[in-house]
Specification:
Largest sheet: 7 strands, parallel
CATH superfamily of the largest domain: NAD(P)-binding Rossmann-like Domain
Number of strands: 12
Strand order of the largest sheet: 3-2-1-4-5-6-12
CATH class of the largest domain: Alpha Beta
Strand content: 25-35%
CATH architecture of the largest domain: 3-Layer(aba) Sandwich
CATH topology of the largest domain: Rossmann fold
Structural class: alpha/beta
Distance between the termini: 17 Å
Shape: elongated
Length: 253
């Protein structure tokens, strides 16, 4: 049994994790954290994580970037493993997460989906062939109109995966509206679309002479992210301090 504190329990993703957690015999959600303090499920809810005194094996975080600082302090103090799913974290917060991974297990992923993490391996393989042949690379991501950050953390992670495969030769271009110049061959374009109730759609285009190769992932519900987060929490239980990713979870399956 893995005992979970759910940070951001009353948000959309928090409620999805709650639903699947209650259905999983290996999971017990023992406490929730939400700024409202409202109890929407069977577990107790605190307004701030610093007030929570419940024993747990891991924290799953689907909150907001502004709530991450208190979470990281809490996990460092308690030596409590944490699955960081919140996007839009600052460079300082990411550095802080890396620091506390020396004291406890930290799993950070821009996207908890098994499909997306497989996609990252596919785009790396494609880049090694197509980028070397001079193909232009573009990433288009689409999300619902309530998403705060743009581009998405997953889009940036896809660009990072491609750039890693290409030994860091590329830079990222987020907006061309103020640039009147030909496309730089060593750039990866990243474009964000926000509208309606789109759960998540990521498209990587390799554009060459007379052909386009497209690798695409579409999420039809938030359940894939909730299930992935719960699987990550199971993976972290009993793990030594360190910085982990969903690739580690996939390899452990």
């Amino acid at each position: 049994m893995v005992r979970i504190i759910l940070h951001g329990c009353n948000g959309r993703m928090g409620q999805a994790v709650t639903q699947f957690g209650l259905e999983d015999p290996e999971i017990e959600i023992v406490a929730g954290i939400d700024v409202t303090g409202e109890q929407k499920s069977s577990y107790p809810v605190w307004g701030e994580i610093g007030d929570c005194d419940t024993e747990a094996d891991a924290v799953i975080d689907f909150s907001s970037a502004k709530a991450v600082d208190g979470l990281l302090d809490y996990c460092a103090k308690k030596h409590l493993p944490v699955v960081l799913c919140t996007t839009g974290m600052s460079e300082e917060q990411l550095e802080r997460a890396a620091q506390i991974s020396k004291e406890t297990a930290v799993l950070k992923s821009a996207n908890m989906s098994l499909g997306v993490n497989t996609m990252m391996k596919l785009v790396q393989a494609a880049a090694r062939v197509l980028a070397e042949a001079g193909y232009d690379m573009e990433i288009v991501e689409r999300h619902h109109n309530q998403k705060l950050d743009a581009p998405s953390g997953t889009a940036i992670a896809l660009a990072d995966a491609i750039n890693e495969a290409m030994n860091g030769q590329y830079h990222y271009q987020y907006d061309r509206s103020a640039i009147r110049a030909k496309r730089d061959p060593k750039e990866i374009g990243i474009q964000a679309v926000r509208g309606g109730s789109i759960v998540g759609d990521h498209q990587v285009l390799f554009c060459g002479p007379d052909e386009v190769v497209e690798i695409r992932h579409t999420a039809y519900s938030r359940s894939i992210f909730a299930k992935g987060a719960l699987q990550a929490a199971k993976f972290l239980k009993g793990k030594a301090a360190g910085y982990y990713t969903m690739s580690d979870v996939i390899e452990d399956c």
